[in-house]
Amino acid sequence: MVDVLSQNEIDALLTALSSGEMDAEELKKEETEKKIRVYDFKRAVRFSKDHIRSLTRIHENFARYLTTFFSAQLRTFVQIHVVQVEQLPYDEFIRSIPKMTILNIFEAEPLEGRMVLEVHPNIAFAMLDRLLGGTGTTPNKVGALTEIETIVLERIFNRAFGTLQEAWKTVLDIAPRMEALETNPQFMQIVSPNETIALISLSTKIGDTTGMINLCIPHVVIEPIMSKLSVHHWFVSQKKSRAPEEVEALEKRVQKAKLPIIAELGNSTISVHEFLNLSAGDVIKLNKPVGDGLDIRIGEKLKFIGAPGEVNNKMAVKIVDVIAEGEDEYDE
């Protein structure tokens, strides 16, 4: 962020320069000196600001879909929104979460590699309480999960991954699939400790219980599609994509559109005097032999060659040839 001086600071600076307390040449020298920025190789910057903005947009949609899903499943007030999207080493993420937490390890084909959805115990046990008939409160002391509790959580989070698939549709059609549920972060090593990850933090409130849900996406997993996370690609693909229902409705409207069809016997050029003196029985000589086909135009475009005839005592034209795109017009 650019520092902006107040009027008092500007006046003080000018006074210092005029009194000789500060040297203008030294200030110029400081400006021309090379600026050195410290780079920590343990915190490699793999995601640009453009990528972070795109991930934020995607997971803001994920938060909305997840709110709707959990509200329907738990039948209580649920509020989820994105707090922060940042990049940090995987080891730092592991050290920042509780020693006992809910870790949903999953894959998302066609992406290669594993990702993690970490759910704070307060949120997980509030969900369990609601799903098992309670009011949605969290026990004072959080213990290990029983076999039944593990199965219940696995089922609901496996279904919740459908909302992640929906949120990512604008970028890539993924198929998230639960691989395992862990409670100890030390037993979960999906990438090397120094690997950069994108951490999407979701603030979650279920009834009166609050906590965090963290989505950990390693850089190595989404590296093949990083170009699709640019803002330009995100907006272009969103603009081009249409819902199947919209496409079907558009096709039906196009099929009902009326087009003028003209079958030309031929043409001729006469003078205005000849035109004014035409009467019944006169013959106008056309520019085409009788045996040649008729030009059939759709609007002004020549599309078919036809032959004149009669059907049910009515004049008709039979299509005998189709003019392919790029061919020269017939007898032009």
Automatic annotation (TrEMBL):
Key words of the record: Bacterial flagellum, Cell membrane, Cell projection, Chemotaxis, Cilium, Flagellar rotation, Flagellum, Membrane
Pfam families the UniProt entry points to: FliM (PF02154), FliMN_C (PF01052)
Location relative to the cell: Bacterial flagellum basal body; Cell membrane
Membrane topology value: Peripheral membrane protein
Gene3D superfamilies referenced in this protein's UniProt entry, alphabetically: CheC-like, SpoA-like
Location of the Flagellar motor switch protein FliN-like C-terminal domain: 253-323
Keyword flag Cell membrane: yes
One Gene Ontology term of the molecular function aspect: cytoskeletal motor activity
Keyword Cell inner membrane applies: no
InterPro entries documented for this protein: CheC-like_sf (IPR028976), Flag_FliM (IPR001689), FliN-like_C (IPR001543), SpoA-like_sf (IPR036429)
GO biological process: bacterial-type flagellum-dependent swarming motility; positive chemotaxis
Main location: other
A GO-annotated cellular component: plasma membrane
SUPFAM superfamilies attached to this UniProt entry: CheC-like, Surface presentation of antigens (SPOA)
NCBIfam families: fliM_switch
UniProt similarity note: Belongs to the FliM family.
The protein's name: Flagellar motor switch protein FliM
Natural source organism: Xylanibacillus composti
